[in-house]
Amino acid sequence: MSGETVTPSTDDNVENTVHRGGCYCKSVEYEVKGSPILSAYCHCTLCQRLNAAAFILTIHFASRNFIWTHPEPHGDALDSYSVPIKPWKTRWRCKNCGCTVASFNSKANKWSVWGAQLERGEDGKIIGWDTVKPTAHIFYDTRMVDVKDDLGKWAGYEDKSERLS
Q1: Residue 79 pLDDT
Q2: Which candidate, 53, 37, 42, places its Cα nearest to that of 156?
Q3: Residue 24 and which of 42, 51, 71, 100 are 20 to 30 A apart at CA?
Q4: pLDDT of residue 15
């Protein structure tokens, strides 16, 4: 993205950690700062259909911790889509490559980004992984595939719904 190296976070500097991400062609870029509100593998049917994937790593940040960093005016590079059944959730995608890069939830005043689009180091791993690594599987009852790991599996959001395993 920017070529600047981000130091993986430690407990002392987690709130200053900056993660960079963006679309495939790099026409759309953003930064998120600090600790996420939520980091989980989402198995909901909306994520499955909108991302053409069995599940995604969704990472939620407070609105104040998200900024677009591609050249202004930002809207020139972006298209948006709001799901009719959840009009408070607007997904943003690149006009050039079509990649969905973020979602804004106006009810909760938070941004969601997807782990696969975060900046990676030369080793191919997400920079600052310890800050954003998932803590659960959410909406697991609508999963397309069983996942064998040690993370909790939840019917809805972690700690706010029934724990399935």
Answers
A1: 97
A2: 42
A3: 42
A4: 76
What the block records as the tokens of 110 is: 């938070």
Of the candidates 29, 30, 27, 50, the one whose C-alpha atom is nearest the C-alpha of residue 96 is 27
**What span, in angstroms and rounded, lies between the C-alpha atoms of 101 and 63?**
15
What single-letter amino acid sits at 18? V
Read off the amino acid at residue 44.
Answer: C
Direct distance between the N- and C-terminal alpha carbons of the chain, in angstroms, rounded to an integer: 38
Instruction: Give the model confidence (pLDDT) of 75-120 as tens digits.
Output: 999 999 998 999 999 999 999 999 999 999 999 999 999 999 999 9
pTM over 0.70: yes
CA distance 1 to 157: 31
Please answer whether residues 58 and 47 qualify as being in contact, where contact means their C-beta atoms are separated by less than 8 angstroms: yes
Distances (CA, A) of 156 to 25, 51, 64, 102, 152: 33, 19, 25, 20, 11
- Are 140 and 154 spatial neighbours (Cβ–Cβ below 8 Å)? yes
Residue 25 tokens, joined: 């062609």
Task: Round to whole Å and give the CA distance between 157 and 37.
Answer: 12
